[in-house]
């Protein structure tokens, strides 16, 4: 660096051509320096097995990159390089990034993280390594059954659970004494609060033509005893009575009961959250991340006024929460299978899950970690969510999930906008049968 | 080209050989200089287009690893796909409306900026600011401006007594596309104005002066002199704008994601979803090919007009 300063200081004394030559060389050297430095540090670790880990970007008190460093320092056989993808809020871009990497089939990244809805797709494409021979039945039994089930494709375990999230109902403790258990109760409570002028918006949810609409759809439909696809992943139930009734209710919250503003049709997670933490909303359907924002004095006017319960259900159904969260997978064409599996198991171990929970706020997928005293001390709220997570419902499981989701987004958006629910769902059924039908 | 093969030649022969080699070199040199450009074009433009066409005849699906030749099946499916046709209509509507509005308003802006007034340089520079802002930022900005709950547009319109209740601009299938057109017009009109301003400056001032002396008013000067002479520029600028508007992606992607109820789904966002979310590369390529064909037709239409116009102007 000092070299460069010398030359730059006296360009006039040197010939122009010579100056350019020297300047060019120095700049080149400076630019190459980091690469050279990196090379030497890699060289000193040449005896370690190098693998790459591609993950969506998460951060809390610490980041995923720092977690990878914890692993790298904990042993001296494997060196993990972290390949950062966009945050999970840009789910489409994370998906695209992973597809581009995995479709090359060159073994990179060795280990990756995936949204729960891509597991079947990546397994169907042959990109995810089946993990049954590395995970014993005992080990598998230590996870939430719902999450573990979502990690399987055609009976084979092709992913290992990382963290769990699901939809839940936020309500204003200061406005209602008891959280509603059925949708009817929610409508009644919301209507009263709006009439009394205590809340501008009764119920905030997400109807933007996007993935989140399908999450909300799964919750409404399942809580009426319906489903989108059958267990075989091939029969389509979206136009059954239970589903039609549930989607009709989604429309009615806006147009009949008027407890949700028409704006929900363009709201995804954040736009639906802001009026709630602003104090205008009585009930909100959202993910677990909202709670810490509610308790943040700088961003919220409802600190200590918010309660969280499982979502309501229809009279003849049970509460259902859409299962979210990211899970781990190993690239089927990895060239370092043993090292990858070792890193995978470390990632999904109770200790690491606890670390992710306390440092990044990601809820563990192991009930044992959930019940641990350490978690209760660091994340008391997270511990109270266990009942919500236990019953989480997976979205339709099929390798063509993305296509199914796009078709549903279009149809359900039409249904909640125009109100022709039965027609829209009948069209959706025909379309889905074309996609997943046997 | 600096090293010429010369082994095994006699001295006399070498001289004439060198001459023919030189003339050959002169003949090949231009082609050689063109080679990098041609190769670049082939790799980044011709090959992808042809490969896209090839893919559109297959059922390539990454998630199931299917990859067979299916002939025109994807195109048959396309013609019967209501989602494609509605996206096609939205795209055409958006292209026509935004190009037309941008041309008319851009023309007015260009006429104002052509006149001399104090601070004209500043205004000309400031006019380009909307065009220089990244579209994603524009989208977010219009998201806030047109917000259904707290948007300043709603507030202003209500203060002015033009609306009774707040309009849910991009959350209502009646107004969502309109909102996107407004955002695009705000952003790109200045670019149009700049092109037309350049065109205006080529109109000989003497013609306008002569007309003024003959007693023509400002409107007559514009309508009978400037506009006819500006027509070719207008067509070229319009073609640029139309082809660009046809590929609209970022405004829609950020502001509405194609919703509500598919009311803002355009061809670019639809093919992006089919290709990169659905991983349906066969059908997605057919969609892109349909886009390509429509764009080619638009370009051809404008092109014919422009050529005819130019012939008439020159002849």
Automatic annotation (TrEMBL), chain A:
One of its GO terms (molecular function) is maltose binding. Keywords: Periplasm, Signal, Transport. One of its GO terms (cellular component) is ATP-binding cassette (ABC) transporter complex, substrate-binding subunit-containing. It holds the Pfam family SBP_bac_1. GO terms for biological process: maltodextrin transmembrane transport; maltose transport. Belongs to the bacterial solute-binding protein 1 family. This is Sugar ABC transporter. It comes from Pleomorphomonas diazotrophica.
Automatic annotation (TrEMBL), chain B:
It holds the Pfam family BPD_transp_1. CDD domains: TM_PBP2. Keywords: Cell membrane, Membrane, Transmembrane, Transmembrane helix, Transport. Residues 88-304 form the ABC transmembrane type-1 domain. Gene3D superfamilies: MetI-like. InterPro entries: MetI-like, MetI-like_sf. It comes from the Bacteria. One of its GO terms (cellular component) is plasma membrane. It is a multi-pass membrane protein. It is found in: Cell membrane. The chain crosses the membrane at residues 28-50, 92-114, 126-146, 176-200, 221-243, 281-307. GO terms for biological process: transmembrane transport. Belongs to the binding-protein-dependent transport system permease family. This is ABC transporter permease.
